[in-house]
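forwarding from the other thread:

> can someone predict this with shikimate-3-phosphate?

sure thing
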Amino acid sequence: MNSSKLKTNIHGLKGGVAVPGDKSISHRSIMFGAIAEGQTRVTNFLLGEDCLSTIACFRKLGVSIEQEGDHVTVSGTGMEGLKEPKDILDVGNSGTTIRLLMGILAGRPFHSVLIGDESIGNRPMTRVTRPLRLFGAQINGRKNAEYTPLAVKGEQLSSITYELPVASAQVKSSLLFAGLQAKGETQIIEPIKTRDHTERMIRQFGGEIEIDGHSIRIQGGQTLKGTEVHVPGDISSAAFFLVAGAIVPESEIHLKNVGLNPTRTGIIDVMQRMGADISIDPYENESEEPAGDITIRSSSLKGTVIEGDLIPRLIDEIPVIALLATQAEGETIIKDAEELKVKETNRIDTVVNELYKLGADIAATEDGMIIRGKSSLTGGKVSSHGDHRIGMMLAVAAAISSGDVHLTHKEAISVSYPSFFEHFESLQK
Ligand code: S3P
């Protein structure tokens, strides 16, 4: 197995980074651009493999998409203009692509087949296929449409009222795409509020949506209009430098243009609570998605409890928060996070096993993990298991390790942050 030796024993991370565009918002900009009428111009689009999979799928659905660097222009066809794909739609590693796309295809009067990589083949799809069938879509697939490959034959949909059994922005968004095409008013009720980029983008594209606490209502048959989308930097990518800045001695890192949507900023709340020296400088713009600059400095940290409503606001940051907790005095308990088991990998197992190999005092629980700090990481042989966020977390862990760290499947990082190592190294000069 090919493994890379990572840089260890780092001191003094200094400088600034503009992290690449937000993954969730980049996916949605293509999807809304496609189903809207007229052109949509996207800036700071994330050129990670996941978002490129979304572009490839929509091209197969007959949408013209031009890409020059991180500027993307989508020539919207309107919902009715999407065409039956002549080829299989391959979503690669991207759960967001497959789940949101299913909601669009559910109402299109044609046949499509969706596949992804090995990780996608193990991820649960009933959470979207069951409610989409309630709307009236015909969906077939392995194990009664729990797993890919999935075949969708769209139908004229009828609106539903649906209480989400899991807190998932992907499921919510998928059902909103179906609701946009259904006859009548669809109501979706979330158990806990999750990231609201879809709701914001519906408004940005001229649509109407009613949000009242955890209840969302949308009328079918709306026409959306193309617009400009300026994608802020991804706080989930910034998270690796927030943690690196806090735990690598003598560091001061400035992160520019980071998305600060309150449904995504759980990591900032937790870091502040743990005692991190972090300051936020929000921009005063009128854009749909709030953003700002963040400064982080080396910090003395203490353990905390992360649970409940906070979990969806930092779900993707838990791997790197676990690393942060290894450098905090006392115990950190992460609970109510069963959803980690169905991410790109089982992130309870991958985080616990890989950090344990490096010398952390960490144990898995049924719904999360317990970390005792502060511990010295000593090094070892670790793997990303093909999970981009595990790979980046391990690169940051290596930075504070005293012994050698070898990482296999480093390439997975390009799913969400192809320039990660370049940016990390720029802070080490
Ligand atoms: C996402 C929602 C979350 C998150 C994923 C992106 C989105 O997944 O983990 O990385 O863009 O809607 P779930 O909806 O499965 O929680």
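The chain has a mean pLDDT of 98. thats all i got for now
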